[in-house]
Design goal:
It contains 13 helices and six strands. With 305 residues, it is an alpha+beta fold.
Length: 305
């Protein structure tokens, strides 16, 4: 059964139809192997009849899907639509999620654990030369070591509600200016959040974050409507740090078996690279001034009180 969420939810009124329209508009007809028929295109991307032709379904069926008037979509039809739209693996998974033909999504509104296990806190402490954090599923910063504070920001100085990487990316000028390519990083943030919205369309914490960012940042609002999605993967980020200048770091994202809603994130530099030298200098320069913290039930530092 296709998922239709209520007004004001992070997933929108008809997430399946919205996603199909957005991906149809984003696909160049020439990329899909279609010959220009000379007709004027009023909007970019594929026409509905072209998607129907490529997916071997009727135009009326595409219309009903996009308008939310078809409640049951089979797996073969979704596969055909995904192939026709040339969806990437993350986008294909998202299509199946919002159409409700995958395994049941986690319960909506389930409160994620904000407490970080003592053993995981000790691991963070031991990673003295590696910036590392524990994040919640909405990129809430639950715990961090001093190296992460030196690299990114003094999380301990922020109110608990503002310790969120996606929120900082859009609403904190200092954090925003760390990115060498902010638009690319910010679009990736939106795509990750949109992926989570497909899994938990009724989640109140996600809805509140999306509502705040939509109302306060025009770029976020625009990119949110594009319905681009992305799951977790290995990636590299380039920062322009005010102390050491540019450095490119590999970002490793590791799941926490005992807490499915938590993830350990670590930043490393290539051996013998300029970025490794810059990171080493930054950590030496920061000394004991960058505070580690997080993990306690009330959000206070586990070591500074």
């Amino acid at each position: 059964m296709a998922r239709h969420t209520g007004p004001g939810t992070a997933g929108g009124d008809n997430e399946l139809g919205d996603f199909l329209r957005a991906r149809r508009a984003a696909l160049d007809p020439r990329q899909a192997g279609l010959v220009d028929d000379g007709r004027l295109r009023r909007v970019p991307g594929l026409r509905r009849e072209e998607l129907a032709q490529l997916a071997h379904v009727s135009i009326d069926y595409v219309v009903r899907l996009e308008q939310g008037r078809t409640l049951s979509v089979s797996r073969p039809v979704l596969d055909a639509l995904a192939d026709a739209l040339q969806l990437a693996p993350d986008e294909r998974a998202y299509l199946f999620t919002v159409a409700d033909v995958t395994q049941p999504a986690p319960a909506a509104g389930r409160a994620g654990r904000t407490r970080v296990a003592p053993g995981l806190l000790r691991l963070l402490d031991g990673m003295r030369d590696v910036p590392a954090m524990v994040l919640g599923r909405l990129t809430e910063v639950l715990a961090w070591n001093s190296a992460a504070a030196a690299l990114l920001t003094d999380f301990a100085a922020l109110p608990r509600a503002e310790r969120n990487l996606i929120r900082l990316t859009f609403l904190d000028d200092g954090y925003r200016n760390l990115y060498a390519d902010w638009p690319r990083a910010a679009r990736d943030c939106v795509a990750v959040l949109r992926m989570e919205a497909g899994r938990r369309p009724e989640d109140p914490a996600l809805r509140a974050l999306v509502d705040e960012l939509t109302s306060r940042d025009e770029d976020f609002a625009h990119w949110w409507e594009s319905h681009r999605v992305r799951g977790g993967r290995e990636l590299a980020k380039t920062y322009v740090h005010p102390v050491v200048g540019p450095l490119t770091l590999d970002v490793q994202q590791l799941s926490v078996d005992t807490e499915p809603d938590q993830m350990l994130v670590a930043y490393t530099a290539a051996p013998d690279s300029e970025s490794e030298a810059a990171l080493r200098f930054l950590l030496q320069w920061s000394g004991g001034t960058a505070r580690a913290g997080g993990g306690a039930p009330d959000g206070a530092s586990a070591r500074d009180s």
